[in-house]
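Appendix B. Raw example, untouched.
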Amino acid sequence: MSYSPVPLINGLIADTQKYLISLDIKIAKKEIDLLQQALSSELTKNVSLQTNTPTQIVNTFLVENYELSNKLTPRSFSEETFFLIMQWGVHKASKVS
């Protein structure tokens, strides 16, 4: 079975937008593009070269762009995105072993 990070990236972006809206913060297209670039840059690398988890990437984005210090965990995202984060972890572990 092949793995694609695209559904994970899309889920993380959508859920991050919902999170920011819940805080009454509007996310501009420019910021969405920055988040998409950060996620794609890391999650499309060879698994052995990836140094950040999906939630670390999102948390860094939130600190750098919105000065939000609350840390999101995989459970902070929707059930579907949580499953995709777990799938990413299993995929990474299977390639690193």
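End of appendix B.
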